Task: structure prediction
Amino acid sequence: MGDNQKRKQAILEIWQAAIDAAEGRMSVIKAITEDDDFEPNLIVAVGKAAQAMAEGALEKFPQCPALVVTKYGHSDLTLQAKDSVEIIESGHPIPDERSLAAGRALLERVSAMPADSRLLLLVSGGASALAEALPDGMSLEDLKQMTEEMIATGKTIGQINARRKETSLIKDGKLIEAFPGAEARVYAISDVEGDAIGTIGSGIGDPHRAQERARARIVASNSIAREHAARRARELGLDVRHNDESLYGDVFELAAKIGKQLKDLGAGVHIRGGEPTVVLPDEPGRGGRNQSLALALAEHIAGREDISILVAGTDGTDGPTDAAGGLVTGETWNAADDPRGALDRADAGTFLERAGSLFSTGPTNTNVMDLVIAIID
Result:
């Protein structure tokens, strides 16, 4: 391929193919078309991809009322202009007062539906923090402290969501259980290992408490995104040497493992999906798990002129930042001062920005975990 710029362009095309394949609007339209016997009386969309998923549903059912709960900055005028649509933006990854307002709104709207009604529930990653209803005796501060502690100590999304389900009044299928109507269908975009509906959004769309009148299906996932990424790579004339969902574990252990694999497997495109973890210091700097992994990988490829690597969250955000991740080359590690200190301080985002390697996309209308895309000449 020849140089960093050409590899970067190819990586961006491969990345975009993955995002397009998992995009919320078209994923929901496809699912509704396949389920042509179902017409809802209320559409509820919760998660980072809620805007796009709701748009897809409303394209099919334009007169249906809808409640949309998403992250700050993740909705736009398309839905805000509709009188029948209520939009609540709230905090992520740390819940806030708006998260509790969203949880109350979900319970109130869903539990008030008539006995003969139908509910369409659209769920994507981020739903756990964006909407919550707490039991008596548990405060928002308790919830924040619990969430911050689990994130800082490197807990996996499965572990975090299992803990959330213990205290929530809407997770673990409790929202659907509160629905008194005739039928509920759940379309979910998976951001968890194994695409378990009981883990996505802490099981807010899990139908296990109302199996006789509710069912769920996965409409987009990391595997779908990676499949289309690999297809685009081949269209570009590149050899796909590796494609799997193995991006789990501590970012530093993963960086060492992936760095070795890249050397062993050689030229071509290498695609990995999943969701790594990072343990944070007491006062972390700016960044997230993808920015940390990108910078850690930069050390392993330092000095090489034949490789470029993108590490990014498919939702367009990485931790509590506006960046999706990092796009690094053999030049990145030495492009700014103190890369090791930046990793130790969990301040990879600051370093990557100085090095010109920060990767930003804005909201992508999906959330199917993270991707690593590497090209070796």
